[in-house]
Amino acid sequence: MEAAWIKHTDAASADVLDFASAGDMVVAGALVAAADGDCDACFDLGVAYSTGSNGVACDLVEAHKWFNLAAVAGHEEATHCRAEVSDDMTAREIAEAQRRARQWLAGSMRKAA
Questions:
Q1: Cα separation of 51 and 112, whole Å?
Q2: DSSP per position, the chain
Q3: What is the pTM assigned to this prediction?
Q4: pLDDT tens track of the chain, all 113 residues?
Q5: Residue 74: which of 37, 111, 33 has the closest Cα?
Q6: Which end of the chain is more exposed for a tag (fewer CB within 10 A), N or C?
Q7: CB–CB of 86/94 below 8 Å?
Q8: Closest Cα to residue 41, out of 50, 29, 53?
Q9: Is the dihedral of CA 74, 58, 32, 110 positive or negative?
Q10: Are 68 and 100 a contacting pair, CB within 8 Å?
């Protein structure tokens, strides 16, 4: 978000900033929808983190977390994506992803109560 405050005089730099901002908005929208229990948004976040798209860096732990949350909510394709991501992760990374998913679920349950 810090980049939004930088003034650009170069048109090419401004285009890059606009693209980054658009990606940030996609992720921000998906986070809001995921907090509301949207399994498609969780899946979309898993895709973003597994591919390093929409303004986020590639992070397999976060990708696994989001695919896991989507799978638990009933998204069928998320189960397969979670398994694929797991193939490139250590047992410790998978455990961390599962811990983060439980933490997310606990936080959203508190909001619902």
A1: 31
A2: -GGGG----SHHHHHHHHHHHHHHHHHHHHHHHHHTT-HHHHHHHHHHHHHT-TT----HHHHHHHHHHHHHTT-HHHHHHHHHHHTTS-HHHHHHHHHHHHHHHHHHHHHH-
A3: 0.77
A4: 333 333 333 433 333 334 346 667 889 999 999 999 999 999 999 999 999 999 899 999 999 999 999 999 999 999 999 999 999 999 999 999 999 999 999 987 655 54
A5: 37
A6: C
A7: yes
A8: 29
A9: positive
A10: no
Enter the tokens of residue 86: 């797991």
Query: And the tokens for 71?
Result: 């799978």
**In this structure, what token pair is assigned to residue 14?**
């401004």
